[in-house]
Amino acid sequence: MLSYDDKNVKLITFLGMERCDIVYYAAAVFASAKKNVLVIDNSCLHDFFRSIPKPEKEPYAKVGKITCVADRKMSYDFFYEFDIVICYNGCSKGKDATEIMNKSDIIYVQTSYNPYQVEDISKLLSDDIEGDYEIIFRDKPSGKVSESIIIDELGFIPEAVKESFIFSYDMQDYACYINFIRNGHQKLSPLSGDIRSFLMTLYEEFMPEIDKKESKKLFRRALSGKIE
């Protein structure tokens, strides 16, 4: 968390597998609660930033309460203009990424079950990063490869992982991702129960002032695709 002048800014990092759909969905959830959200796309693909419609030659994109920029360094003055800052690092990691991760409330490590991709993601993790890690397992194929094996291959000890989320392979989820990167928007209503369950945890994790009844109401709003 970043604190300045009695204002607290929640800082979240997504690291690993470059698939920006979950970043967009998380931003939509926060926007549904009328939070001003900044998404920084520091990934290699820039699939989030490149997908959002933007004015010609403008270095930023804005959809309602969501602002998106690419390759932005740590900037306290800029970050304090927002309630929540999401840094989507993907497989890119540099000095600035480490600084942001060390300030993050939570670092979500997004991984597949592909051993070579897991190996590459493990190289992004280092002992000089302090923070709470949560793992998002994407496209679970079957029960033959356990999450404990992936955690070990990533170089974590189980106790270092605060929580984990398993998204089974779902053709509809993948179709939603493709639709988003081609059209720059995507309703949350077609998403699988696995992704919906993860998104619901964001209210409790980052907006504890919102009770469960209100969070369900806001989530229904997010599902409808109304980003204001």
Describe the model.
The chain is of the alpha/beta class and 228 residues long. The chain has one domain: Rossmann fold (3-Layer(aba) Sandwich). It is built from nine helices and nine strands. It has helices spanning 21-32, 47-51, 76-79, 95-103, 115-122, 147-154, 171-183, 193-206, 212-223; strands at residues 2-4, 7-16, 37-41, 60-63, 66-70, 84-90, 106-111, 133-140, 161-168. Strands 1, 2, 3, 4, 5, 6, 7, 8 and 9 form a nine-stranded mixed beta sheet that branches. Helix 1 packs across helix 8, helix 1 (21-32) packs across helix 9 (212-223) and helix 8 crosses helix 9 (212-223). The mean pLDDT is 88.
Characteristics of this structure?
228 residues, alpha/beta, Rossmann fold, nine-stranded mixed β-sheet, 9 strands, 37% helix
CATH fold assignment: Rossmann fold
| Tally of contiguous helical segments | 9
Mass-distribution shape: globular
CATH architecture: 3-Layer(aba) Sandwich
Name of the CATH class: Alpha Beta
The profile of the biggest β sheet is: 9 strands, mixed
Number of strands: 9
Q: Would you identify the CATH H-level superfamily?
A: P-loop containing nucleotide triphosphate hydrolases
**Share of residues in helices:** 25-40%
Q: β content, as a range?
A: 15-25%
- The overall pLDDT, averaged over residues, is 88
Please tell me the total number of domains.
1
What is the helix/strand order?
EEHEHEEHEHEHEHEHHH
Low-confidence stretches: none
Structural class: alpha/beta
- Please compute the radius of gyration using only Cα atoms: 17 Å
